[in-house]
Amino acid sequence: MAITRTDPLADTLLNSSQGRxxxxxxxxxxxxxxxxxxxxxCHDAQRAQPxxxxxxKGIELLxxxxxxxxxxxxxxxxxxxxxxAAIIRxxxxxxELNIPFRTSFLPQQNFGWIGSQRCAIWLCTQFLNNNxxxxxxxxxxxxxxxxxxxxxxxxxxxxxxxxxxxxxxIGLEKSWRSYLKQDADYRWFDKGQEKxxxxxxxxxxLNDHHRRLVEPLQAKFSxxxxxxxxxxxxxxxxxxxxxxxxxxxKAFNAHKAKKNREGKEQTNxxxxxxxxxxxxxxxxxxxxxxxxxxxxxxxxxxxxGMPTQEHEEQQPPLPVSDRPKQQAAAF
Length: 331
Fold this sequence. Notes:
two-stranded antiparallel ribbon; elongated; 4 domains; mainly alpha
């Protein structure tokens, strides 16, 4: 004999669920809608009477669900369907939730193009800016909820037709792909072997010059995506954002120069122009700074000895343009 699994939420909202079991997305919709309805009733009751204890108790129960389920289990199963169903029945919300439930959900594949946390965070911001009436709902989202789940939850919660939701998603996808064209400015962060250091310097610079952008963040930058998420919230022009990235580059170069000077003393050398040109060519050929070339030559001479006069005489004569002149060039 086959055992039919029952879902208390499906039984409560859909009456005869016939073995219907809500998925994680549907469970979250029910939780968010229930939370909103009870919050709304609580606020109404506060205006009508001083002690709306019944509604306040409902909010406390939902707070407990958020703490034990959404946080402890990383926003996944097991979901306390029996407890939530009991709250819905106790407050007579089943019929009120039944009608919107049947028309709230777009197919999962409509969200399949959302490929990163940064994308989902950007979508939440754009969606709420376009639908300011939903901003109070965003404050009901559990703390730390993954951005993709938050965005899908907001779209599911939105009280409009599926056609409107579908068109909105298409528009947001086009806007996101167009927005990504600005990412050319970030290529510098991915060059070289000091990517993490660049991100750390970016955080320090932004914290000094645009603290409002970094204050909402939970931690310092450790990846390029952290930098991008931060600057996605910058409300200035594209040119102003580019200027910020250029300033971060300068800060990074200054940071490296300071590190390179640690344990070193400033030394001024007067070189004739031909020697300076040779030094510049060596630096260019070896992709080192002039200081690094001088250091390496000195270290080599210390280990192997200075070239002898005979060695110098064996060298081919310098071109006329490279022969020493009387005047000296400062190094």
